[in-house]
Each structure stands twice: as C-alpha cells, then as structure tokens.
Design a protein that fits this description.
disordered N terminus, elongated, about 35% helix, alpha/beta, 10-stranded mixed sheet, about 800 residues, 6-stranded mixed sheet, single chain, about 25% strand
Length: about 800
C-alpha cells in the first residue's frame, strides 16, 4: 500500500486524548485504535528503506533530536525547526540537519513528510500548511514506532526511570554483542548519543512515552514495564485511562513482558499475562534482588533467578530505585541469553544519562547534583538516594513542572521532601501550559509546611534561586536540583561560582571566610544592596595580597568594603570579589608614643578610645565616624571640623599587583572627601598622630562629639551624608530650605533631623534611595540652580 493512500484512509482517525468522551468512544469501537497497525509496515518501509525529505517540528526537544539523528543515519534529508538552537541541534547540523529558528509554513512545502512533537500546538503554521495541502503528518511516537518495525523492538515504559533503564538496556545489549539500535530521551554519554541506528543488530531499544497516549503506537517484541501511577493528569482523566494505554501496549507485545512486581498497579496489570516475567525484591519475583547494599554512589546486590543464585551485581549509579531498574535489565538480558558475567560487567561500567543524578560539581566541601525528577514518587526516590551518600545536609532546589501536575499532585508533593534538610521551591515551569489561577510554587510550599517541614522557602524568581541556595551553603552540603524544566541552569551557575569560591578559600585559609552571594544589605549602614558574587574575609596581609593577584590573573573585579558607611550598593549587587578585611592583621591596634597604628578593619571609634586609653589627644572627632580606618582613608572622612588626613602620619597599602608599600603623609595627595591613591590600591593600615592630653580633656571632647552626633544625626539606618557641601551652603541646610525633609520614595526617606541624611524606614531598596537622590538633585537644580554632587559612593549593578 502506498503511503499517501494509507494516509488518506486514516485521515479521519487521529490519535486522541483519553478524555471521558474518548474513552467511551473507544469502548463502543474497541478495534478502531488498531486500524493503523495494518499500515505500519508501509510507514516503516518509507522511513527505513527509502530516502525522503523529512521535516521535524520542535526538533530541539530531546525526543525529537534523537529522531532527527536516526533519520539522518537512515539516509533521509532532514530539516527541523524550533524556537532556539541547542548543543544537540548544533551537533545534528554538523551531521546534516538543516535547522531553522522559526516555524514557517514554507517548511511544509519542501518536505515529503512532517513529524511533530506533542509540545507543538495545533495552530503551528507548518502543521496548518501540511493539513491544508494533504502532506503526510505524524507524531514523534508514530515515527519511532514505525522505525522499530524494521527491528526486534524492546520498549521500556513506565512513569519513572524510563530514560535510565533504556540507556542501561542498550548499554548491556551492546556490551553483550547484540549491536542494538537505541532511542532514549536524554543525552547518554556512555552510549555516545541519545539515538543510534545500527545496521548490524536485530534489536531496537526505545523509551516509550506515555504522557500523550502515543505509547499505544508501539508493537514491540518485548516490553519492560517499570511502574504505573497517576501522572499526566492534564491528558488522562484518571488512573484507569492510564492503565488502558499500558494494557494496549502489553496486548501488542509479541514476546515477553517484564514487569516490576513490587509496583502494585504494574503487578495487577501484568501478573496474569502470558509470557510475563517478574522482577523486584519480592520473594515471588522471577528475578529477585536480595542483600541490597547501598553505598556512596552505587550499590551491590545478589541476583536470584527463580530460586537459583546467579551472583552478585554492582551498580555505580545511586539509589534503590536504580537497583529496581537494573533488575529489569538483568531479567530481559538473561532471557535473551546474554551470560550473567557479561551483564554484570556491563552494569559496573554504566553511567547515568544527562540530568539523571548527574554530578555537576564535587569537592571535599560540596557536592552538586542535578536530577530530572519532577513527580513526587521520583522526588522521594532521588532524595533517598542522595541521603544515602551521607553528606552533612541535603539542600534541594525544586522547580514544579506544569500547572496541571502541581494542582493535581500538590498533596503528594507536600510529603515528598521529608529527606531534604532545606528546600527552596521556585515558580512553575509551564511547559506551554496556560497558568491556573491560584496555582504557583507557593502551592507546593504551603503543602510542605503543612506536612511539618520547617526548612522550606519560596523564591518565585528563578534567576535568584542559585544566589539564595549558594548563600545558605555550609561545608559538607549536597545540593540537589530537581525538575524537568530549566532549574538545572541555576545549579550550573552555582557550580561555576563554587569553582572560584573554593580557590578563594584556599587563598585565605581555614581562618578566612568565603561566602557566595552574600547580601550587602547586611554589610552597609544603610541596610540596602544586592549580593556580592564572592564575599571574602582575609585575616592576613599576605592573604589579601594573594587575593589581589588572583583577581588580577582571573580578570575578576575586586572591591573592598569596611563597615559599609558612606556606601550605596545597587540592588543587583556587585560582580566579582568583595573583600572585607577583618580580624587578624586588620584589627590590630598598636600604640607607640603619641602615634597609633590601626589595621584597615579597625573602627575609627576604636581608634579614638585607644587614644584615650593612652592619653593621646586630637583624635576624639573619630568617635563620630561610623566607618573603619580603611573607609575613612578612602573617603578622607571627617567630623567636628576635622578630616582623617589631618591626623595621618603614614599609611601602608597594597598595589594592584599585591605588592606592599608605605608612604608618609607628605607623599600623599589628598582632597576633600577623596583620596586618589586608594582608588586603585588597597589600605592595610594607617598610623595616626596626636599629642599628649589629660584624660579629663579628652573625655570632654568625646562627650561633645557624642552630643553633636545625637542632636544632629538620625538614629535610623543611613549611609551618612549623601551630598557634598556646595560652596555657598551646607547640603543639609539646602535640603531643609527646599522643604524636602521627610519626603520619601517607598521606604527611603529624607531625615527629619538632618536634611543631608536619607534613612531606611525598613526594607527600602537601593532603587528607591537613588530615585529620592535624583528628586532632591532635580529640585535643587530647578529652584536654586545648584548642582548637588553625591558624597556617598554608589556602586553595583541594577537588579
């Protein structure tokens, strides 16, 4: 029968969703679904023995890219379209794929046959054109099933574990000398690619997709049924409809049906079938796993076949669920007469597919793993496997997949995270679904909390997940990303930054601190600011010097922060390394005669009181400065009519290459609120000079400083003076005369006490502060013709 004639005959019999109406219709006409079966050999011949022009709609998806690879190997001229390119489409282009980043109607005109992904909507221009002109049009599963007809087919089916088991099966058969072809729904490093056509072998191993009912397209020789439960309830009305599809696959299997006896639904559906072979941990299993020992990244177990001990098997992929998967592979490989020693040797070498417990980063301090698990059952199994590795804490980032699944299984999700110490849930990955009102990531968080888990948080913004998880990390943590969407990208960012963070930690040593994505709002007196990509606290001058050299060599921006006064960090934070010299060399205070040498991390107020203790006068004004020595030097800070460099006798600093220098005051160029030398160099310490004074005299001046600060400066959170004083009028007085005191933007407000202070009334953002600054500048310019300059240092990136 010619392909076109067959298509015309089938034009009015599309595969349809198993809605209640469709289910009822199938009950009325039980043979209707089998009409395509008679024509399958013709499509099989069209795809496996002839060469044609075939276009794939949605080619970037893992399933469609695998099909593209098969069709190219089979000699077809293959084109494909999708919204964007991927590493897989780039690889396929090198093999001959003609890739288009748009779905255009003309792509249908150039093709003899069109295959489309289930994710493609009915109004796609290629599908519309193909239907209007009668072009052959097939779903992905129909094409894969037809290709399988040219071989002895093995279908791996089930809600969970299909990809891993399919890859494991293909690997064992290949190592067993059977030269199988395969089609698996992910990148498979150990197999080389996710799909491969081998002319030499008889067998074709394929992962069967149950999500859209197309599992019933397959007519394999053998089937492995892993598990059956409620899933894809956007497509199926209930479990009965799901089981009907699996039952049809089983009916259409000509040889053995291997099934997981430990899964109740699978056992009920398969147990009484002819040629059924069971596997699992149950005593009733034909192939039984016993004495299972789970260890770091794998397991070992005894295999017993119908009462006969075959021997020990070892897996190098973790989790009891993967022991189950391996038992299914062992059962079928044994039934196909592959020797047990070859099977076990193959299993020892097996490695996971991409996004199946894939290690993204590993060190003595941290382990980062990504997994595709997105159903409660999968999540429980993956968390159990992760927990068995024995790390200090298990930190999980989870992205729900589809609004319909989130709604249908929210209660099950609530109890799925018990093995995780900390859980961060982001918003739902829609997978082309429209939103459902009231259904978000918060839905799952609420259920987890209701289940009495106290370590769960909700972060609706996906791009912030890696920062929040990274900032909570502690040595010994295992971080696990879970979800079928793009949550793995957040883990990859975290992994890349951890590589650098670990190098920074090696530089500062055990006594130093390194944290990822530290909120700078915790380290500025105004209490605003986004995260520091790398927050580093060196304790020694040598460590600081090595940090400078590392940042220079790695082209990383470096910024030094003290107490964070006179500093406004934008909401996007600071890229690169933010150094906070603290403790050790940087908090030493030494007194010699009338001189005090203080490290860059010493608070100026501490210098004032150290001087008092040594009966050194002239430094009392420092009591009124909230910053550190380093910050005071950088800004030439001042109070009570005095400025920092009026008391500096010499400074010690590191240059841009990490080399140390000492300069005396007469060698330094200093300006009002600016010290150019520290714009590209880094303070280590400063020596301040005073004169002998009576303790009572010193105390009087300290009290004067305290009283002035109390009466003229707000107690609320602020960065200090925002504007430099213009030549004609103090900035605070100008703001007062303009009537701008107590004006606000959001939670940022001009102080009632001092017009040159902006205070944070609680949870203000940097953008609110900046907007208020711009408003003040605008009014000053418009009403008084004065251009105000900011004294506060503004750094960082917008959010």
């Amino acid at each position: 029968m010619q392909l076109v004639a067959w298509l015309a005959r089938l034009k009015n019999i599309p595969l349809m969703k198993l809605t209640p109406e469709a289910t009822a219709m199938r009950a009325d006409s039980p043979r209707k679904e089998f009409r395509r079966r008679n024509a399958l050999p013709d499509l099989s011949r069209f795809l496996t023995t002839e060469q044609h022009r075939i276009h794939l709609v949605g080619v970037a998806g893992s399933g469609m890219s695998g099909l593209a690879g098969l069709l190219i190997e089979l000699g077809h001229v293959v084109s494909g379209s999708d919204k964007g390119t991927t590493t897989e489409t780039e690889r396929l282009q090198r093999l001959g794929l003609r890739f288009h980043e748009q779905h255009l109607a003309k792509h249908a005109d150039a093709a003899d046959l069109i295959v489309f992904s289930s994710a493609i909507k009915d109004d796609n221009p290629i599908l519309l054109t193909a239907r209007s002109c009668g072009k052959p049009l097939f779903r992905r599963a129909e094409a894969v099933a037809a290709i399988m007809q040219a071989k002895r087919g093995i279908v791996i089916a089930g809600m969970h574990g299909k990809t891993t088991t399919s890859a494991m099966m293909a690997h064992v058969l290949r190592e067993g000398g059977l030269h199988p072809s395969h089609y698996v729904g992910a990148e498979i490093p150990i197999l080389g690619t996710n799909a491969y056509w081998n002319q030499r072998g008889e067998y074709f191993v394929a992962e069967g997709d149950e999500s859209d009912g197309t599992l019933r397209c397959f007519h394999p020789e053998h089937a492995v049924i892993l598990n059956i439960e409620e899933e894809h309830l956007d497509f199926y009305p209930d479990l009965a409809a799901i089981e009907e599809v699996f039952a049809q696959l089983i009916d259409q299997t000509s040889g053995s049906v291997l099934y997981n006896v430990d899964d109740p639904n699978t056992a009920r559906l398969c147990g009484k079938r002819k040629r059924a072979v069971s596997y699992g941990f149950s005593e009733q299993a034909d192939y039984r796993g016993a004495d299972v020992e789970l260890r770091n990244f794998g397991s070992s177990f005894l295999v017993v076949r119908r009462g006969e001990k075959l021997g020990q098997a070892t897996l190098n992929v973790p989790g009891e669920h993967n022991v189950h998967n391996a038992l299914g592979v062992i059962a079928l490989a044994s039934e196909l007469s592959i020797p047990f020693d070859k099977i076990t040797a193959s299993l020892r070498k097996f490695e996971h597919a991409r996004r199946r417990f894939e290690i993204k980063y590993a060190s003595d301090r941290f382990l980062l793993v990504d997994d595709y698990a997105h159903h409660p059952t999968e999540i429980r199994a993956t968390l159990r496997a992760a927990k068995s590795i024995g790390r200090r804490r298990l930190v999980t980032m989870f992205q729900p997949h589809r609004f319909s699944r989130t709604k249908a299984l929210c209660r099950e999700f609530g109890s799925a995270f018990d093995d995780a110490d900390r859980v961060m849930v982001t918003d739902v990955y829609p997978a082309s679904e429209p939103p459902i009102p009231g259904i978000t990531g918060r839905t799952i968080v609420d259920e987890i909390v209701r289940h009495a888990h106290h370590g769960v948080t909700y972060q609706p913004h996906l791009q912030s997940v890696h920062r929040e998880v990274g900032n909570m990390l502690e040595a010994g943590d295992l971080v696990l990303s879970l979800g079928a969407g793009n949550i793995h990208e957040q883990l990859e960012i975290l992994a890349a930054d951890l590589v650098i963070a670990e190098k920074l930690k090696a530089i500062v040593g055990e006594e130093g601190e390194v944290r990822l994505y530290e909120p700078l709002s915790n380290h500025t007196t105004l209490r605003v600011g986004g995260p520091a990509q790398f927050w580093v606290e060196p304790r020694t001058e040598q460590g600081f010097s090595e940090l400078i050299r590392f940042c220079r060599d790695e082209h990383l921006p470096l910024f030094v922060i003290g107490r964070g006064s006179n500093l406004l960090v934008r909401d996007g934070g600071l890229r690169g390394v933010v150094v906070h010299p603290r403790g050790g060399d940087f908090e030493k205070i030494e007194v010699a005669g009338c001189e005090i040498t203080a490290g860059a991390g010493v608070k100026l107020r501490q210098v004032a009181y150290a001087a008092r203790a040594a009966n050194i006068g002239g430094l009392e004004w420092m009591e009124g400065i909230p910053g550190t020595v380093g910050g005071g030097l950088r800004m030439n800070a001042g109070a009570m009519g005095a400025q920092t460099f009026e008391n500096v006798t010499r400074i010690r600093y590191l240059d841009a290459d990490g080399n140390s220098h000492v300069k005396n005051r007469n060698e330094l160029e200093v300006f009002y609120r600016r010290f150019p030398l520290l714009e590209k160099n880094f303070a280590v310490s400063a020596t301040f000079g005073g004169q002998p004074a009576e303790r009572g005299e010193i105390d009087t001046r300290l009290r004067e400083s305290q009283e002035k600060r109390r009466t003229t400066q707000p107690v609320a959170k602020s960065a200090g003076c925002i504007f430099k004083n213009p030549a004609t009028i103090p900035a605070g007085k100008l703001v007062d005369e303009l009537g701008l005191k107590n004006s606000r933007v959001g939670n940022a407000r001009v102080s009632r006490v001092h017009g040159n202070f902006i205070v944070n009334d609680g949870h203000a953002t940097a953008s609110e502060v900046l907007e208020l600054i711009d408003d003040i500048k605008s009014v000053a310019r418009k009403k008084r013709g004065i251009e105000l300059e900011t004294e506060v240092e503004i750094v960082g990136e917008p959010e």
